[in-house]
Amino acid sequence: MFIGLDLGTSGVRALLVDGEGAVLASADRGLQVSHTQPGWSEQNPQDWVTASREALQELHAKAQAEMAQVQGIGLSGQMHGATLLDADGAVLRPCILWNDTRSHVQAAALDVMADVRALSGNIVFPGFTAPKLMWVAEHEPDVFAKVAKVLLPKDYLSFWLTGRAASDMSDSAGTSWLDVGARGWSDRLLAAGNMRRDQMPDVIEGTDVIGTLRPDLAQELGLSADVQVVAGGGDNAASACGVGALREGDGFVSLGTSGVILAARSGFHPDPGSAVHTFCHAVPGRWYQMGVMLAATDSLNWLAGITGASPADLTAELSDLRLPSNVRFLPYLSGERTPHNDSAVRGAFVGLDIATDRAELTQAVLEGVSFGLRDSFEALRGTGADLPALLAIGGGTGSRYWVELLATILGVPLQLPAQGEFGAALGAARLAMCGVTGDDPLQIMTKPDIAETIDPNTHHSAAFDEAYAAFRSSYPALKAMP
């Protein structure tokens, strides 16, 4: 038996699977995010521990006999968060999360330093970990002086579980301290951010064992003291393990709160100028690249909030695929990553008319998000990634209209998986299986069954290509506005 423990921004998910990967039980606990100032986003690491403890206790209540047979726990989690510990392992301040933009000045300064892009393989985004520590050094020097270790969110959970400070390659690749090609901490990158190697956790592969469960915690949770905790991966890398995206040509598009297009790569092919993320995969000897937009289903949720309708009600007003709307939506409600790396830009509607109704606004929002994802798709193609089809996951795939629209705008078939678990928690459990048994990830991390494949609507392809060109031209005009 194995457990996958996934620490998301909005909650913790614990998944119990057997040796064949079949799900036996699951448990979820919600989390809150604190926004004390504009652009700030924080969580209390103790809340992660409380939520994880409760989720694991619920698994024990549901499957007591099976929990006693657990051999390994794998971890996945939200990336980039700065969890600061003192010499005694105590948390110094709330964790600054991935979607916190306060360190945009520090990120810009770090990004232009010599060797930073070349070694890290990425633009330094404000959401990354290194600029957050530079912000702390400038604005909270008393806290910075006490920092003995910096842990990513999921790695704080493994520290709680084992007492060892360790991180995997895929999560560490999003710090701007890791030499992503060489898969190890870079003294040059650490020095650029005024950090030291001794402040870093041990960096290991996602299939490596961190250690065994603390005896007191094992007894509390009804687990064997021999349970091994495996490093796991950042959320997108773990999700790729959950859907079997390990080889060249494998990839997925995620219509979640943020939007992601991910391509598995067998080698290191960075292109920082495109704002594509190039990270180590959670399995040894592999990498992945992804384009990220910050407001995917968040854009639809925003429209739902101001219209008083649910997202499902809004999309239900659209049936057969329409030609592109005359209204254009720029989905930059929280800034944007790929391809603009612009934390300051904000969204807009263009072309509103007295006759514009709610359905057309919904259509424009879905199109704007889909065009934003095509930006990422084109950027990935520019790095040499070949994606003949994509698995489509995330809450937005519940809208058949949106899936057909996105397939048409991207110009590739989208595959909808059959019902079941295939996300980050399953990926974490699979990483635990590989770590404990030594099995080949390619044999463990299989692809889900496909329920349906949605092909592009070729009758509308040319019209959407033209609309995408107009969308592309809108960003410079929006950026130029005072």
From TrEMBL:
EC number(s) reported in the record: 2.7.1.17
Full protein name: Xylulose kinase
Function: Catalyzes the phosphorylation of D-xylulose to D-xylulose 5-phosphate.
Keyword rRNA processing belongs to the record: no
Family matches, as NCBIfam families: XylB
Residue positions of the active site: 235 (proton acceptor)
Domain Carbohydrate kinase FGGY C-terminal: from-to ranges: 252-434
Positions that bind substrate: 79-80
Catalytic activity: D-xylulose + ATP = D-xylulose 5-phosphate + ADP + H(+)
MF annotations from Gene Ontology: ATP binding; D-xylulokinase activity
UniProt family annotation: Belongs to the FGGY kinase family.
UniProt xrefs under SUPFAM superfamilies: Actin-like ATPase domain
Carbohydrate kinase FGGY N-terminal domain ranges (all copies): 1-242
